[in-house]
């Protein structure tokens, strides 16, 4: 279970999260929606361990263990995966080299042996085919020259290979056309499992048409202000965030 308790976070002295509480159960897809500036991306970065965020109070627990004192790589080994809204390009680093190094680093952290090159090649090709990732993309530097949709597919490919316990998708639908959105969502849905939870951060209902959430949380001013079923996202699509922004004021 991923539990966030009374989380307070500041950036350069500005308070972003204000006592946020949230639980994501194994096997659950939880969506977070909210207006710009509500703290959604900050929440994802803090869970993953990104620098420059000052946690002044609260806990982030996986199965009761607080991970706030762990480095990002330790959190990744514990089962946290963050798919970025804007995946970065890394010139000079071959995609296959990056994928193999990432996978084997996590295997070592779990006390497992490195995956052999033949096995790795087979696993990557099978996962890439399911996500309609062009094999030529695997021969290029990581994300260099990729379209927005290609970068997002590469993020989901990484998640498929690393098989995390909790996948956090930070506005994965941003910049995607309908075809790319369908493929990326299909990759996420293929990874849904009883022992794997997802936290899906989005502005729009359209992503949730493809990735059906079990629960929807509305975030405003650094707090969860309402929780409901998937129908809550439809309500937001119709009426917007005005009532919830006012409630949080």
Explained architecture:
The chain is α/β, with parallel strands linked by helices and 249 residues long. It has one domain: P-loop containing nucleotide triphosphate hydrolases (Rossmann fold, 3-Layer(aba) Sandwich), CATH 3.40.50. It is 38% helix and 28% strand. The protein contains 9 helices and 12 strands. The strands form 3 sheets. Strands 6-9-10-3-11-12 form a 6-stranded mixed sheet, with helices on both faces. Strands 2-1-4-5 form a 4-stranded antiparallel sheet, covered by helices on one side. The protein has a two-stranded antiparallel sheet with strand order 7-8. The longest helix is centred in the middle third of the chain and has 15 residues. The model has no long low-confidence stretch (mean pLDDT 91).
């Amino acid at each position: 279970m991923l539990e966030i308790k009374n989380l307070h976070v500041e950036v350069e002295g500005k308070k972003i999260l204000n006592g946020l509480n949230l639980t994501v159960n194994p096997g659950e897809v939880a969506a977070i929606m909210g207006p710009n500036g509500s703290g959604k991306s900050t929440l994802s970065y803090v869970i993953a361990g990104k620098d420059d965020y000052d946690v002044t109070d609260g806990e982030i627990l996986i199965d009761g263990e607080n991970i706030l004192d762990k480095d990002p790589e330790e959190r990744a080994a514990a089962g946290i995966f963050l798919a970025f809204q804007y995946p970065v390009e890394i010139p000079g680093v071959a995609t296959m080299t990056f994928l193999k190094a990432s996978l084997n680093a996590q295997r070592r952290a779990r006390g497992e042996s490195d995956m052999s090159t033949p096995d790795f090649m087979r696993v990557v090709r099978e996962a890439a085919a399911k996500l309609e990732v062009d094999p030529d993309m695997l021969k290029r530097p990581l994300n260099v020259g990729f379209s927005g949709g290609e970068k997002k597919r590469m993020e989901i490919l990484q998640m498929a290979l690393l098989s995390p316990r909790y996948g956090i998708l930070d506005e994965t639908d941003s910049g995607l056309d309908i075809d790319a959105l369908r493929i990326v969502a299909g990759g996420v849905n293929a990874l849904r499992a009883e022992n794997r939870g997802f936290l899906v951060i989005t502005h729009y209902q359209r992503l949730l048409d493809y990735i059906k959430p079990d629960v929807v949380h509305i975030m405003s001013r650094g707090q969860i202000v309402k929780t409901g079923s998937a129908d809550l996202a439809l309500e937001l699509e119709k009426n917007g965030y005005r009532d919830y922004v006012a409630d949080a004021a």
